[in-house]
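Design job #97: recover the sequence.
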């Protein structure tokens, strides 16, 4: 069956379908579990900050292991790593649902994150390899639509499952979805055998340890900074430790004959500027989706359900524009879409910086739509351009690296935005925490809104820098990688 499908001209869509099912399940799981945290907290009689490690441990594991898993897939094959990751994800989703203690649940989520790192680190590479170079933007755009669908459906699905079947069902629902993904992958995906030189090179264990350690320490510092304070010895020590591990990683990667990540890719302007623009885009843009619900609920007074509905039009725009911009960038080039998308996002952030405690949805909704349209226009062409600048045999690790850039940008964006907002609140005599916004006492809403202004002006600057980088980088110095998976 595999040989028959692989010979068909529509093999690329069979491969896309196999990966799309697992990607949808992974993304929907990541956002739907948030809905289940309050009942999990009640069931295990634990406070919410402790229970949040059910989510935090999962995200940290994915981020820390994306790069090693991407490199592993380049050595032993994309299909093997993707299927094994799907199996690990399904087994520990079952284990999470069967948990009888909070420790068991968090441990299962760490293991589930290992499986998710394997699938997220290979899924995009499988798609990029299955489609010809002149259709890669379109393929990445459709995969972005799958990710967007999972992000939209996840909270609603999680809420339905928790209400009718209890919190355990949020984990159990992943089992049939991942089983389907495994079955489709076994039946459909072909395996491109690694070159002999790659097999001899082996796996860079020291590089994997250094990169994992650097990311884990850095992300732990970011997620804990607003709790312990940015100047606390713990946070400062963690940041220094992360920098030391990163320096060690760079030193080793430039000297080992088989590096985890080929740092010489950064000599190519399309690659280095594309990666930098991507990081700055997520650093500048994603804090909106974290802070806006606070503004809508605690400053403007909307219910959680109404606030959720306000976010939907923008999410739909991102879902639609991802495939459209990817398809058009294959035909007209990536620059108009990356630069144009970043310009829309920068305008959106500037509009957000004008918000007051009395603003209306007539200002908020258009700004959200502009931001989502900008992100939708930018992402697919940018990823396609970066992949066009590297060799086919590096697709696994580079796709994983791009996912890592996205995740790190998101976590860093939330940490920086929270720091600016809470520092502004503190300077005005209010408790410097988002918990004070939740309580909504006195004029804290005014202080919070002023903090939003400073945050969004800062983020606007980041997007303008990203726009300049996207405009200045040239074309790939080598021909686009081609070949089917």
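Job complete. Output follows.
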């Amino acid at each position: 069956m595999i040989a028959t499908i692989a010979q068909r001209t529509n093999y690329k869509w069979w491969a896309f379908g196999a990966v799309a099912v697992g990607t949808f399940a992974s993304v929907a799981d990541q956002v739907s579990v948030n809905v289940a945290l309050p009942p999990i907290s009640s069931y295990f009689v634990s406070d919410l900050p402790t229970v949040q490690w059910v989510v935090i441990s999962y995200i940290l594991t994915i981020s820390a292991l994306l790069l090693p898993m991407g490199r592993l897939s380049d050595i032993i094959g994309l299909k093997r790593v993707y299927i094994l990751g799907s199996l690990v994800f399904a087994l520990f989703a079952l284990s999470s649902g069967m948990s009888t203690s909070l420790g068991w649940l968090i441990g299962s989520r760490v293991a589930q994150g290992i499986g998710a790192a394997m699938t997220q680190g290979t899924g995009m590479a499988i798609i990029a390899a299955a489609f010809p170079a002149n259709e890669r933007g379109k393929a990445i755009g459709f995969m972005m639509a799958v990710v967007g669908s999972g992000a939209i459906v996840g909270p609603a699905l999680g809420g339905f499952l928790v209400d009718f079947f209890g919190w355990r069902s949020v984990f159990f629902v992943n089992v049939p979805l991942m089983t389907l993904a495994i079955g489709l992958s076994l039946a459909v995906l072909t395996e491109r055998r690694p070159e002999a030189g790659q097999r001899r090179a082996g796996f860079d264990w020291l590089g994997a340890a250094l990169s994992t350690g650097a990311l884990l320490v850095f992300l732990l510092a970011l997620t804990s900074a607003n709790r312990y304070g940015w100047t606390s010895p713990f946070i400062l020590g963690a940041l220094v430790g992360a920098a030391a591990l990163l320096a060690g990683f760079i030193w080793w990667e430039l000297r080992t004959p088989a590096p985890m990540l080929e740092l010489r890719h950064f000599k190519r302007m399309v690659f280095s500027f594309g990666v930098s623009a991507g990081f700055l885009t997520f650093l500048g843009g994603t804090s909106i989706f974290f802070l806006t619900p606070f503004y809508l609920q605690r400053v403007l007074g909307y219910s959680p359900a109404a606030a959720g509905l306000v976010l939907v039009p923008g999410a739909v725009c991102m879902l639609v524009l991802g495939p459209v911009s990817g398809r058009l960038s294959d035909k007209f080039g990536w620059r108009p879409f990356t630069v144009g998308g970043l310009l829309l996002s920068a305008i959106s952030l500037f509009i957000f910086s004008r918000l007051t405690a009395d603003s209306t949805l007539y200002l908020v909704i258009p700004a959200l739509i502009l931001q989502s349209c900008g992100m939708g226009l930018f992402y697919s062409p940018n990823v396609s351009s970066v992949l066009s600048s590297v060799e086919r045999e590096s697709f696994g690790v580079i796709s994983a690296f791009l996912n890592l850039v996205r995740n790190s940008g998101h976590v860093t964006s939330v940490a920086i935005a929270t720091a600016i907002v809470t520092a502004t609140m503190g300077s005005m005599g209010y408790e410097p925490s988002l918990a004070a916004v939740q309580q909504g006492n006195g004029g804290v809403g005014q202080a919070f809104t002023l903090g939003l202004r400073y945050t969004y002006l800062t983020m606007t600057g980041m997007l303008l820098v990203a726009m300049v980088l996207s405009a200045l980088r040239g074309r790939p110095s080598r021909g686009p990688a081609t070949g089917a998976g």
